[in-house]
Amino acid sequence: MSLPAAPALAALLSLALVPGPLAAQQPMAAEPPAGMPAGLFTSDPARIDDERGANAVVGKTRAALARTGVLFAPEQTRELALREAALTALQRNLDVKRIGLNKSVAQRTLVEAEAVFDPVFILAANASLSNSFERIERPIQWKPATQEYVRGQQILTGTRTDDIFLCGTMDDILSQPAELQTNFLRGRMIAPDANGQCHVRALPSTAPVALVAFDKERVAGYYPFRKEASTKSPNGQTETYTGTGGISQRLPWGGNLDLTVVTTYRDAYYVNNPDDPSTRVYGSYGRPWTSRATLSGSHPLPYTRNFREGDENRLAIDTARLNIDVADFAVRGVVNQTLLGVDTLYWTLVGAIQRLDAASGSVALAEESAARMQRRMELGLASESNRGQVVAQMERLRAVQQQLFGDYLTASESLRELLDEQDDALLLPIEYSAALDQPPEVPPPSGGAGGLSARVLDSPEYLRSETAIRIALRVRETRDAQTRPDVTASGSLQLSQSNAVFGYASVTESLGSLISYDSASLSIGVLYRRPVGNRAAKAALAGVDHDIKRQTHLLHQVERQIRSDYETARIQLASARQRIDDTAKRLALARDLHDRAARLEAGGVVTVYETIERLGTLLEARLGHIQARIDARIAESRMLASIGALAERYGEGAAQTREDRERIALLRGTGALAAFGEPPR
Questions:
Q1: Which residue has the higher pLDDT, 607 or 418?
Q2: Cβ burial, residue 293 (10 Å; 0-12/13-18/19+)
Q3: Given its phi and psi angles, is residue 479 left (phi above 0), alpha (psi -120 to 50 degrees) or beta?
Q4: What are the distances in angstroms from CA 292 to CA 119, 258, 499, 676?
């Protein structure tokens, strides 16, 4: 659709879809809207009177046929203008509403896809409470006997001088060789018991100590020993509280950037005089808060698997945007087809009314001729045979009238079903004669002008097929990128505090002093990954290539179909225009022959039968001329619908009407409308 026509279509849809009184609540389409001067939107009141006069034939024919019991039809009638029919059809068309919801779904899908690139804020809290207990076991274990030595005796545990120990005290050192006295003074003495004996157990040379001394003798055997399997924590229950805050940002070319701050509450304890085994008093630093900040990111390198067009998130965004266009084209297509149905049925209804009016007029003339024949028979100037011929011709005209009334009922019911009318009323067309009296012009053949090519490219069906190819091409870019190697650069910087060194008394102090970190780590890396084989990615790429070919063939098929439908409708329009001229000449000739026969009948030259026969010929000519005019209008609608321009024509008219109403409201508000003939209030 051309750019100037886009506001027109928007105005048409807005008028059709906004809440408002339904067409069924507006019984007279020809009446102006509330607050508007009478006749303001009526270009020719005389035409409206003529149309209503033609519509009156419906009531007369229905009453006449109802009296004979031949045909029954509803008594209620309602006038309906073409614009009102179009707006009502769009307002009640469930396909328009359904596809409109599809567009809303596509828009929300786009919002969802774009939201992936919004910053994501992370808040988390964690609490852990722990307590430890130690369990003591006394299992049975084999222990060898101790080695017994007397006071003053040397204990040999090896071959070196340092491997010689002395069983005794300081008094016993002087009795030992001088070269060993210094060695014994360095702690290589075993204190004897009250009986002057030392109980030791020498260990192998691989042991960390040379021997183990006992306070009494131990014989070989099985002994229970104390084993500390678990014990209670001297600090009691350990409480740890962690709070995490961060922000994650996905980058538009692939990759992501993350910033995380973690603060932890956990008491740290110290031991008084830890070298003294008798001291087991613990205290807290009173500075339990520490924090940690981490900045990390990763990004694929250009022309690799996940960079830009290879990113699935970018594919989802681009596809969602194209699907919005597809939904919009689908709405335009449904609106176009709906208006085509309204146009076809409305002009069919107009043709049925006009043909019925022509037949009723012919029946009235035939009844007048039959009355004249009856008077001539009473005067003895006509025979019974002449009267029978007249009656037969008149009944034939009545049969045609009855058939045409049935056609009108069918057209009215079809249009009523299309508009989803709930009331059982006959529809009467109104405000149509101005358009009907101006037959559309036949455009030049498509091969002789470039205008059709531009209009085909603007057709909703063509645009939908073209957009499907664009979606497939965009998918192909991503599938092709999936066959490339994946090269990703990543980096991470972490600053940490530790209350094992120096904690903080409050969380604010810890966060404020995060720059005074206790440790820092920086890591940079590059990951290269190339799948071997990668059959799935290659198969997906091949599938997309086939889909592009299929969509391309479908696009060419749609284009040929549009051109074929347009050319067919153009030929039908040209044929209808030619038939309008031909039937107009035939109508003029038939009217002239009928008028001449009526004059000759009055002079007694021809019979009434011949006049009625000319009347039948005149009726056929009128019906042919009416049908040609209707076919021209329907052919124009089909031609415009084939290239998607039917909604444009309706939209421009609706937009002009809406603008006119706004201007009139402004003029009335200022009191200037009285200058244009509006009566004072």
A1: 418
A2: buried
A3: alpha
A4: 21, 14, 12, 80
Cβ pair 25, 421 in contact under 8 A: no
pLDDT of residue 622: 92
Give percent helix, percent strand, percent coil of the chain, each to the nearest 5. Answer: 55, 20, 25
Beta carbons of 514 and 289 less than 8 angstroms apart: no
Strands 189-190 and 197-202: unpaired
The greatest distance separating any two alpha carbons of the chain, rounded to the nearest whole angstrom, comes to: 188
Q: pLDDT digits over 184-218, tens only?
A: 888 788 889 888 899 998 888 788 888 889 888 88
Residues 6+ apart with CB under 8 A from 496: 290, 291, 292, 517, 518, 519, 520, 521
Q: How large is the average pLDDT for residues 493-497? A: 93
Nearby residues of 507 by Cβ (< 8 Å), 6 or more positions away: 243, 263, 265, 289, 291
DSSP string of 153-214, one letter each residue? -EEE-SSSGGGEEEES-GGGTTTS-HHHHHHHHTT-EE---TTSEEEEEE--TTSSSSEEEE
For residue range 117-147, what is the model confidence (pLDDT) as tens digits? 888 898 899 988 877 776 767 778 888 899 9
Q: For residue 444, give the H/E element and its range.
A: none
DSSP 282-303: EEE-S--EEEEEEEEEEEEPTT
Q: For residues 23 and 15, give the distance between their C-alpha atoms in angstroms, rounded to a whole number.
A: 12
Q: How far is CA 439 from the centre of its chain?
A: 43
Q: Can you tell me the distance from the alpha carbon of 587 to that of 548, in angstroms, rounded to the nearest whole number?
A: 57
CA 503 – CA 32 distance, rounded (Å): 84
Q: Which residues contact 550 (CB under 8 A, 6 or more apart)?
A: none
* Tokens of residue 634, six digits: 């329907």
C-alpha R_g of the chain: 53
Q: What local confidence, expressed as pLDDT, does residue 37 receive?
A: 38
Length of the chain: 681
Q: Output the six-digit token pair for 288.
A: 């339990």
Q: What's at 85, amino acid-wise?
A: A
C-alpha to C-alpha distance for 141 and 222, rounded to whole angstroms: 5
Separation CA 374–CA 392 (nearest Å):
14
What is the C-alpha separation between 255 and 490, in angstroms, rounded?
Answer: 9
pLDDT digits over 446-489, tens only?
654 455 666 778 888 999 999 999 999 999 999 999 899 999 99
pLDDT at 13 over 60: no
User: Which residues is 244 bridged to in the sheet?
Assistant: 124, 262
Could you give the CA distance from residue 339 to residue 319 in angstroms, rounded to a whole number?
30
Q: Which two tokens stand for residue 28?
A: 């007279």
The closest of 262, 362, 209, 299 to 525, measured between CA atoms, is 299
Report the C-alpha gap between 176 and 161 in whole angstroms. 13
Q: Among residues 218, 294, 285, 235, which one has the least CA distance to residue 262?
A: 294
CB 643 within 8 Å of CB 452: yes
